[in-house]
Design brief:
single chain, 132 residues, alpha+beta, Alpha-Beta Plaits, 5 strands, elongated
Amino acid sequence: MKTLLTIMAVLVFNISGFSQREFTYTQDDSVYTMKRYVFMLLNSGEKRSQDSIEAMKIQELHLAHLDSMATTGKLIVAGPFQDGGEHRGLLIFDVETVEEALELESKDPAVQSGRLKMEAFYCWGAKGTVIK
């Protein structure tokens, strides 16, 4: 009975750890801290018929919007995909919820114009990982 209670306590602790944004685990001699981020795909929107001048203006405003979110520390990675297509780029947010990331990115002129649409979900990564 004592073993069963111990196993149940460990399971409850581990499950509750995943409801948090961070958890730490040990493997062999190493300790890892994982953190939950929001990964967002920016996909082609339904309204991409703007002329080249208008598309360039939207792109400039889009980049300014991304830069302003990066300045706040909420957007930690952003970039386009090499060959374009349906999937245009990715964003990784350091925010509490998917809804918060969607709210932030909904203010992007490229999303508001219909050139881009958003798809977001949670992902886990090593805390403190830096892309250089």
